[in-house]
Amino acid sequence: MKAIWKGSISFGLVNIPIKLYSGTQSHRIELDMVRQKDKCQIQYVRVCKKDGKEVPWEDIAKGYRKENGDYIIIDKSDFEKIAPEKTQTIDIFEFIKEEEIPSKFLEKPYIIEPEKSAKKVYALLRDALKKSGKVGLCKFVMRTTQHLGILKVEEDAILLIQIRFNDELRDPDEAGLIPKDITISKKELDMAMSIIDQLTDTFDPEKYKDTYKDDLIKMIKAKAKTKDGEKPAPAPRKRKTAAAKDDLLDQLKASLAAIKN
User: Taking CA atoms, which of 62, 163, 173, 207 is between 20 and 30 Å from 213?
Assistant: First the structure.
């Protein structure tokens, strides 16, 4: 596993040299864009909308579009003027209780490994976080962008969880997404609670698998065995779900019956 960032954690006047690793991995299968009739791979080109000519990389700049349609060119020196200082430091500036952070703020996990010379001070921070029951709120710069994060302990490891800034989140009420003035009967609510009780269990991440990749590979292998123009065996039919127009109470009763069976 290759480190994606090297720096240190600033904990009071203590510095902990560390390496940062991505805490996630992608299972995506890369598919190329091809022309259907002869399977020729598609190549993307950068074309000017005005004259239709291809534009080489050296002639391409970044521009901010004004209301009148004109562009203000932003060059490398402009970005450098406003770029946050690359401190290579994860600065802890506050300690808080993790439950105070709504889940919508959590974004991306990273694994922190201490340098050999910093194992003891790493262990000190880990044990102090454990005992306090708190997480370290911190700021760090990665790829010229400043991020907010928390340092938290999972088993014997300190993880850095990148979190979103408040102004990155949308208010659902702005788009009228929250239903209001809806009356729910006691019978409907009791039955919904029964469904929740029937399906309640403890969280075990080993139970949950993303089967899409396996299903895609199986489908590709099946298609590879067929001749061009032939259709592979049809996929199994999906279970029918109740239509939105069906009576809510009937849907709840059917749901309970399906769970018990």
Answer: 163
